[in-house]
Amino acid sequence: MLWTKTITISMIICALIAIFIKLIFLNNNYNTDDIKDPILYYKEQVSVMSSKLSNTMNYKVINIFHRKNPTVYTQGLFFYNYSIYESGGLYNKSTLTHMEWPSQKVIQKLNLEEKYFAEGIAASNVNNILYQLTYQEKEILLYSFPKLELKTKIKMPNQLREGWGLCPGKEKDEFFATDGSDKIFILKINKTNNELNVISYIHVTRNMRPIYRLNELIFDGIFIYCNVYFERAILKINPYNGEVMNIYNMQPLIDYELENGKLTKNRLNGGDVLNGIVYIPEKKSFILTGKMWDYYYEIIFN
Question: Which of 152, 160, 161, 277 is nearest to 226 (CA)?
Fold first, then answer.
């Protein structure tokens, strides 16, 4: 009887040791699948193998790309047909650039009038127009799309105090827009004159508290993903009631920029913050960057 008990105890101890060893092995190899998709590899990509980025908690950094033009003060991104449109801000320096992705070969680049501070952008196939917000000029610039040519300028809806972020909405003739407040506005395209009209808005809240300084945003067809100006996070937002469903800590991206790029703490504190998010539906991934950052980050949110 004692012999039988001894064997049973020994078997239990061996099983526990085996489980412990397996757990150690899994922990040491956690997230290695983040970088194994060969389809994602290009000459412009930086490996994430040795980076802390592979250990992020609720999202995966699957690609990092050197920015070919890191001097752009990124205000908005728009993805279309394997290319990216990028809106760059600042007075006397605002631009609208169309480039291939991921090579970043410039297809077209337009310089704005010196009086404009460019902000968020989005296009609609309802009228083949790309809309570019301006910061405090109370105007929206309208371009032909996909080939860019400035067509006209329209007044910004009075309900928006300023122009911040813009992205396609739930319907083909709608956009989501932000103005730095706690609201996400729903804009509808007037098909007669291409003007935008506010038809509704949602208050964004977390635990019943409003979230202010909503900035660049994108809609993946289910949720809105939005950054908050000067905050180091991306919010996942319910587009129907404005409730924040999840918060993604982007500090690892900032740390990577500080360690591997030209971003400094002084620049970060001065405004060169996280900004710019776009969704790639074919891969169900997102591209993020910041104002005058050295890298684009391709991410999958859990």
Answer: 277
Q: Determine the Cα–Cα distance for residues 157 and 166; give it in Å rounded to an integer.
A: 13
- Phi, psi torsion values for 260, nearest 5 degrees: -120, -15
Question: Contact, 35 vs 54, CB < 8 A?
Answer: yes
Model confidence band, residue 57 (pLDDT cutoffs 50, 70, 90): confident
What is the per-residue pLDDT across 123-163, written as a single tens digit (0 to 9) for each? 999 999 999 999 999 999 999 999 999 999 999 999 999 99
Three-class SS of residue 265? helix
Do 213 and 80 fall into the same domain? yes
- Tell which residue, 122, 116, 157, has the closest CA to residue 136: 116
Q: How far apart are CA 80 and CA 272, in angstroms?
A: 26
Does the pLDDT at position 1 exceed 50? no
8-state DSSP, 156: P
142 with 18, same domain: the answer is no
Do 3 and 95 sit in the same domain of this protein?
no
Number of domains the chain is built from = 2
Q: Are 7 and 39 in the same domain? A: no
Same domain, 9 and 75: no
| Together in a domain, 283 and 159 | yes
Altogether, the residues listed in the chain come to a count of 302
Give mean pLDDT, residues 196-204.
98
Q: How far apart are CA 4 and CA 24, in angstroms?
A: 31
149 and 48 in one domain? yes
Q: How many Å is the maximal CA-CA distance in the chain?
A: 93
And the tokens for 79?
A: 């993805």
2 and 92 share a domain?
no
Which tens digit of pLDDT belongs to each residue from 219-250?
999 999 999 999 999 999 999 999 999 999 99
Range of the domain at 10: 1-30
Q: Hey, CA dihedral for 71, 180, 133, 85, is it positive or negative?
A: positive
Rounded to two decimals, the pTM is 0.84
